Automatic annotation (TrEMBL):
Residues 10-196 form the Thymidylate kinase-like domain. Phosphorylation of dTMP to form dTDP in both de novo and salvage pathways of dTTP synthesis. This is Thymidylate kinase. ATP binds at G12, L13, D14, G15, A16, G17, K18, S19. NCBIfam families: DTMP_kinase. The lineage of its organism: Bacteria, Pseudomonadati, Pseudomonadota, Betaproteobacteria, Burkholderiales. It comes from Castellaniella daejeonensis. CDD domains: TMPK. Keywords: ATP-binding, Kinase, Nucleotide biosynthesis, Nucleotide-binding, Transferase. InterPro entries: P-loop_NTPase, Thymidylate_kin-like_dom, Thymidylate_kinase. PANTHER family: THYMIDYLATE KINASE, UMP-CMP KINASE 2, MITOCHONDRIAL. Pfam families: Thymidylate_kin. One of its GO terms (molecular function) is kinase activity. Belongs to the thymidylate kinase family.
Amino acid sequence: MTRSACFITLEGLDGAGKSTHIPWIEDRLRRAGVDLLSTREPGGTPLGETLRELLLHQPMDLRTETLLMFAARNEHWRTRILPALERGQWVLCDRYTDASFAYQGGGRALGAAPVRILEDWVQQGRGPDCTLLFDVPLEIARERLTRGREQADRFEREDAAFFERTRQAYHARVAADPSRFRVIDARREIADIRAELGGILDELLHARGYGTAAGEPDPS
């Protein structure tokens, strides 16, 4: 079987715990022989990282915020993610366009329609192959944020109603595209979450011509 690229994104509320699992996912994929680009949004390019600092710390109008998110995303998509996929690399990205539907569209109540227009313009119909949504109840996410952050950014400082709208918007995305999403119950112990993640990754590896992360040959 010919090996092929895969674009995986990770999503979830601030405090859902997804960042805890990123190094583990990276290691598992690389042990399976995957040539991996691991990146993040907003960010991922020199311009994107500059815009990230503005987006996380500088007050701005909602439309400005949304446009800057997509400016960073366009640079990221066209200069790093798309070229990597075209080379046959896998891409693992901490947040992508679903975050804009959730945070700007839902949390900030912009609505999905403007985000969808920008998504279509920037991505031209191409997006992630698999999205891992780390889902926790709001109270758990906020407790983890309080415990784990020395200095919160302007998104993390939002109130409970903002995060509830954000979570609802994520679940609306799942309902609209259930075959792409894998919803991870992130309330569980780390070992249980990683057991589930391992199974998902092995499915993706096998479907794209790889063995498992343990180095087993592809039976096909």
